[in-house]
From TrEMBL:
One Gene Ontology biological process: chloride transport
Gene Ontology cellular component annotations, sorted alphabetically: membrane
A molecular-function term among this protein's GO annotations: secondary active sulfate transmembrane transporter activity
Positions of the STAS domain: 515-705
Species: Danio rerio (Zebrafish)
Coiled coil: none
Matching PROSITE patterns: SLC26A, STAS
Membrane-crossing segments per the record: 72-97, 103-119, 126-145, 165-186, 240-264, 276-297, 333-353, 365-382, 402-422, 429-446, 466-491
Keywords assigned: Membrane, Transmembrane, Transmembrane helix
Protein name: Solute carrier family 26 member 3 isoform X2
Stored PANTHER family: SULFATE TRANSPORTER
Membrane topology category: Multi-pass membrane protein
Length: 733
């Protein structure tokens, strides 16, 4: 190849796949069998043991490179800032889980300690996550409702309502962690790939609406039991509006004031984040003020405001998960495991790219699995990450999980020392803080116009996931959303946009003929592009599109030609037709209109017993008519075909034979070498379909066709471009 300005010149032979293989020897690579893979996986040496230890305990890798002078101060500031927010979010999100507020502090402490040792992200803030908390709350209120009897579960005897709920929450969290741990050990971290950004957006938006509605009873100071299950959001709104006249004005005014001030200061933080050394901790400030005002004016007695009340004092003894609860909640725990991991991994991936380090999805599953199982043993509920908390940890200078440990220490101080100071805090303040933190998720509604204009299938996925999650519940909604997403994938591959290509004048490029005006299409040549894998579900679609584009059905043409030959043979035998120098001449009209046997009409045309060669494009004798075929060559562009299954292979072979039997030359170009190997192993080739129909590029095939059919178009004469066939085997570009 020689550069020449903004042009390039290549002189090489004109290749088919056969001639290319003759001139360029391919390395015969030995592929590993399953036995070899298992042997390599279970073999052990010093290097593998070291790598396994570093993989299982990633903190060793960054701790030995820790830059104390550069990173320590940032980690300390970040840890303190994140810890204060973690305390408040732990209290607030425990309301979503239908648990006493103090247990949210356990979720902010125990999982963060374990994640320090096992997690691969250096910036993730581990703790309560509102969507997971809401999903835990749905399980808790189902098994231990506010009103009516609890489920008949062994182990509930002698426990108060709150203790039963804590046992349910910790048991379902333990099972969720077990699911995550097993998936990590089985190396299935790739499962998060099936949760597209569109699906997660629709799911989290619906969850945000659920959370918003669930907090209305705290913001308005209404007293009614929590509702779960399908259509829970409708029933909750009915309860809210039926009791709206009983609104506690003190709770409402406090909530509105808190939300307004927090939103304003958060906007200031976003707008001036480059100038502020650390974001203004407005949530902490408002919480302190609300606690002071509530205590000073005795909100609980004077205004009948529900407060946080007695906080947990220190740590409680470990508790084993209840097996009956695990049996009852297995269906809910699995989607919780998927959602918790998917959100955490997505956030971790953003910051790993930003700060140039790698994260391991399988190790993250192990880390969260062990964190949740360990935390559940100490009565915490499901942990993942909160987007706002992680953003604070990163933006305030956090470089490693040292900030996460310091954040957990801040929570520890509250648990064992100063937790009682938060007892006067109105629960409406926590509800207001939860609602304010939903802003980012609720703003995802703005994605809909973009999706509608640019990607309708993704728009459908978003809407189906949102509506299903909103009305059926988050667990069923996630399942429906995944189903809708897989349906759109199948739809895209089963009904892709096929196209007919043409040469762009003056180049060796081929594009959709509908998109360009300066194109060249040789007479009798059709180039059909297949833009997706070929499998059992779309082979019939491709065949129908191909028949539509070429303008005739090859099987119908083949049967008509064979039927015409039968009639010609019969007329010759009966003397109704004789052969002269000018071709077949009809001696007398034929009156036989019988169709004869329909068998063998799809077999190759046989002229062996005829004294003439029939030209199907000329006028045929008597009333014989055959559909016209206006092409002599068909090129199938396989550049976008990544795989082909056995069922589709049989359909493709049958289609190619139909064209070959009506004297249409078929060529396949840009076929992946591994697909070629599969074709050979599946006995795709025979006397009719040969390897010689395969060409490495579309232009190689086109030049071969123009050389084989010179009467149908000459490339240089027609479009005056600098292609020159030097010999049969070489070309210059």
């Amino acid at each position: 190849m020689q550069p020449f300005g903004r042009h390039y010149v290549v002189v090489r032979p004109l290749f088919s796949e056969d001639s290319f293989a003759e001139q360029h020897e391919r390395i015969n690579r030995k592929r590993k069998t399953l036995r070899h893979h298992l042997k390599d996986y279970f073999s052990c040496d010093a290097k593998r043991a070291k790598n396994a230890a570093l993989s299982l305990f990633p903190f060793i890798g960054w701790m030995k490179d820790y830059k104390i002078k550069e990173w320590l101060l940032g980690d300390i500031v970040s840890g303190i800032s994140t810890g204060l927010v973690a305390v408040l979010q732990g209290l607030a999100f425990s309301l979503l889980a239908s648990l006493p507020p103090g247990y949210g502090l356990y979720t902010a402490f125990f999982p963060a300690i374990i994640y320090f040792f096992l997690g691969t992200s250096r910036h993730l803030s581990v703790g309560a996550f509102p969507i997971l908390s809401l999903m835990v709350g749905a399980v808790v209120t189902r098994l231990v409702p506010d009103e009516g009897p609890s489920f008949n579960i062994t182990g509930f005897e002698g426990l108060s309502l709150e203790q039963q709920r804590v046992l349910v929450a910790s048991s379902v969290t333990f099972l969720m962690g077990a699911f995550q741990l097993v998936m990590g050990l089985l190396q299935v971290g790739f499962i998060v790939m099936y949760l597209s950004e569109t699906l997660v957006s629709g799911f989290t938006t619906a969850a945000a609406v659920h959370i918003l509605v669930s907090q209305l009873r705290f913001v308005l100071g209404l007293d009614f039991p929590g509702i779960n299950g399908p259509l829970a959001i409708i029933y909750t709104l009915v309860e809210v509006f039926s009791r709206i006249t009983s609104t506690n004005v003190a709770d409402l005014v406090t909530s509105i004031a808190i939300m307004a001030l927090v939103l304003i200061v958060k906007e200031i933080n976003d707008r001036f984040k480059s100038k502020l050394p650390v974001p203004i901790p407005i949530e902490v400030i408002m919480t302190v003020i609300a606690c002071g005002v509530s205590y000073a004016f005795n909100f609980e007695e004077r205004f009948d405001v529900v407060i946080v009340g007695e906080m947990v004092n220190g740590y409680e003894s470990p508790v084993a998960p209840n097996l009956e609860v695990i049996e009852e909640t297995a269906v809910e725990a699995f989607p919780m495991a998927i959602v918790g991991f998917a959100v955490a991994f997505s956030v971790a991936k953003v910051y790993s790219v930003k700060h140039d380090y790698t994260i391991d999805g399988n190790q993250e599953l192990i880390a969260f699995g062990v964190s949740n199982m360990f935390g559940a043993s100490f009565r915490s509920f499901a942990a993942s990450t909160a987007l706002s908390r992680t953003a604070i940890q990163e933006s305030t200078g956090g470089k490693t999980q040292i900030a996460g440990i310091l954040s957990a220490m801040m929570v520890l101080i509250v648990i064992v020392g100063v937790g009682f100071l938060l007892e006067p805090l109105p629960r409406s303040v926590l509800g207001a803080l939860v609602i304010v933190n939903l802003k980012g998720m609720l703003m995802q509604f703005s994605e809909l116009p973009f999706l509608w204009r640019n990607d309708r299938p993704d728009f459908v996925t978003w809407m189906v996931t949102f509506m299903a999650s909103l009305f059926l519940g988050l667990d069923l909604g996630l399942a429906v959303g995944i189903g809708a997403e897989l349906f759109t994938v199948v739809y895209r591959t089963q009904f892709p946009r096929c196209s007919v290509l043409a040469n762009i004048s003056g180049t060796d490029l081929y594009r959709d003929r509908k998109d360009y005006t300066s194109i060249y299409e040789p007479d009798g040549v059709k180039i059909f592009k297949i833009p997706s894998p070929i499998f059992f579900a779309n082979i019939d679609f491709f065949r129908d599109k191909l028949v539509q584009e070429v303008g005739f059905n090859p099987m119908r043409v083949l049967k008509k030609r064979n039927k015409a030959l039968r009639k010609i043979r019969k007329m010759l035998c009966n003397g109704e037709l004789e052969v002269s120098d000018r071709g077949p001449v009809l001696r007398q009209p034929s009156v036989d209109t019988s169709e004869g046997s329909m068998e063998d009409l799809d077999q190759p045309i046989d002229f062996s017993d005829l004294p003439i060669q029939v030209n199907w494009n000329s006028q045929l004798p008597a009333n014989i008519s055959v559909p016209p075929v206006n092409i002599h060559s068909l090129i199938l562009d396989f550049c976008a075909v990544s795989f082909i299954d056995v069922s589709a292979l049989k359909g493709l072979k049958a289609t190619l034979k139909e064209f070959i039997r009506i004297e249409v030359d078929v060529y396949i170009v840009s076929c992946d070498v591994y697909i070629m190997e599969k074709l050979q192993h599946c006995t795709f080739f025979d006397d009719e379909i040969k390897t010689s129909i395969f060409y490495p590029t579309l232009h190689d095939a086109m030049l071969h066709i123009l050389e084989t059919h010179p009467d149908h178009g000459e490339l240089e004469k027609d479009i005056n471009i600098n292609y020159e066939v030097i010999q049969r085997d070489s070309l210059t570009v």
